[in-house]
Amino acid sequence: MVWVASFGVWAFITLANVGSLYELYSSSGGSMRISDLLGMECSQTLTYFPLTPFVFAFAIRCPVQRSNWIRRSLEHLAGGLIFSITHITLRGLTHYAYFDAQLHGWASAIGRSQPDGFRVQWHVLEQLFFRNVVDDITGTYLPIVLVAHAVAYYWRFRERELRTSQLETQLAKAHLQTLKSQLQPHFLFNTLHSISALMLTDVPAADKMMTRLSDLLRMSLEDNQAQVTTLNRELEFVNGYLGIENIRFEDRLKTVIEVAPETLDAEVPHLLLQPLVENAVIHGISRLSSGGEIRITAERDGPNLNIRVRDNGPGLGNRDGPRSKVGLGLKATRERLETLFGIAQSFEVRTPVEGGVEACIRIPFRAHQAFGTNEIASRDSGARA
Questions:
Q1: pLDDT of the residue at 80
Q2: How many angstroms separate the first and last alpha carbons of the chain?
Q3: Are 217 and 368 in contact (CB under 8 A)?
Q4: How far lies 360's CA from each of 219, 274, 284, 306, in Å?
Q5: Contact yes or no for 268/363 (Cβ under 8 A)
Q6: Distance between CA atoms of residues 217 and 222, nearest Å
Q7: What is residue 109's DSSP assignment?
Q8: Is the dihedral of CA 316, 321, 322, 325 positive or negative?
């Protein structure tokens, strides 16, 4: 790319100079063949082309920094002199190196045909050097070095930006996995507590709950690394959990699920509904002597997916007992939603006018594509990070 860019830039400058000189000669009444103008500019300007990539590479390898600016400046001064000498040598090889008054035409300073053979016009090369050394260093070498430093700075900036982005993605994934790992033992311990409560009073029911729990754990292990799954898969997991609680509460627990068909393939965080339903069971239904109802609804509202989990328990203000477990599930759910969706989500727990507690979630509606759940998690968490 450097070689192509070098040729393109110097070719453009050469042609631009030819056009300017031709216009200048035409406007002043002089006559100059376009071929001579092109030869002059190719000898003077286009000979910078093969030198530019080497100067660029040298500037990249030897950047001027605050700690080494004196040494690097001397190195680049020496490099500028070598650059000018090389440029004069290349120019001397061309047919338009200088104008020979004796021949009344242009001639090369090196390899000119003479009766005594090959000859180098040292006085011509010396004149060309002293006439061009300042312009070569300040007008050509120094700009190339500055461009190389700017490109190197941009490369380092982009590399740091990429490393920062990768680090943020890794941290976000680790944070999500930590929050999810908090929910899994929380759910397991509460379920085992429910099973132990039946061990001395109803052994067959406790055994059935253990069987259901093993099915849930199998489902959980299948999606262990996934952060995002489908609403349909999440409802399967919640139905398995409610099946365990139905054994415990029997007719005291009623479940109503109202989910729009077009939302079943929507992407939702894994273990999104289970802690909300668990809170409704523990702090809502279990407080009612006659039992109660848990209602799960999901609908699409334009670009958003609205999910609600509601119980008809005593409400937030009437809940007694320790609230740490409730806080853990809701806090982890809130943090996961913020990490995955940022400001595009909302999570609210409120007391409806009819009583009870309702958890309302709004997240962007994203239809499930042909990816595995692990791929969905990686893609989604990477995008949000």
A1: 92
A2: 33
A3: no
A4: 25, 14, 16, 7
A5: yes
A6: 9
A7: S
A8: negative
pTM confidence score: 0.51
User: Cα(340)–Cα(246) distance, rounded to whole angstroms?
Assistant: 32
Of residues 184 and 144, more confidence is placed in: 144
**pLDDT confidence of 265, banded at 50, 70, 90?**
very high
Distance CA 346, CA 378 (A): 22
Give ∠ CA 64-69-71 in degrees, rounded to 5. Answer: 105
Instruction: Quick: pLDDT tens for 194-203.
Output: 777 777 677 7
Residue 372 in tokens: 């595995």
Check residue 305 and give its pLDDT: 95
323: which 2 tokens?
């609230």
Please give the radius of gyration of the chain, using alpha carbons only, rounded to the nearest integer: 39
Question: Quick check: 266 and 230 in contact, CB under 8 A?
Answer: yes
What is the three-state SS of the chain?
A: CHHHHHHHHHHHHHHHHHHHHHHHHHHCCCCCCHHHHHHHHHHHCHHHCCCHHHHHHHHHHCCCCCCCHHHHHHHHHHHHHHHHHHHHHHHHHCCCCEEECCCCEEECCECCCCCCCCCECHHHHHHHHHHHHHHHHHHHHHHHHHHHHHHHHHHHHHHHHHHHHHHHHHHHHHHHHHHHHHHHHHHHHHHHHHHHHHCCCCHHHHHHHHHHHHHHHHHHHHCCCCCEEEHHHHHHHHHHHHHHHHHHHHHHEEEEEEECHHHCCEEEECCCHHHHHHHHHHHCHHHCCCCEEEEEEEEEECCEEEEEEEECCCCHHHCCCCCHHHHHHHHHHHHHHHHHHHHHCEEEEECCCCCCEEEEEEEECCECCCCCHHHHHHHHHHHHC
Across the range 243-257, mean pLDDT stands at 83
The residue among 68, 67, 126 whose CA lies nearest residue 92 is 126
Strand, helix or coil for residue 272 = coil
Q: What angle do CA 147, 4, 163 make, to 5 degrees?
A: 55
Angle at 177 between CA 171 and CA 180, to 5 degrees: 140
Reply yes or no on whether the pLDDT at 371 is more than 60.
Answer: no
- d(CA 385, CA 377) in angstroms, rounded, equals 12
Strands (E), 108-211: none
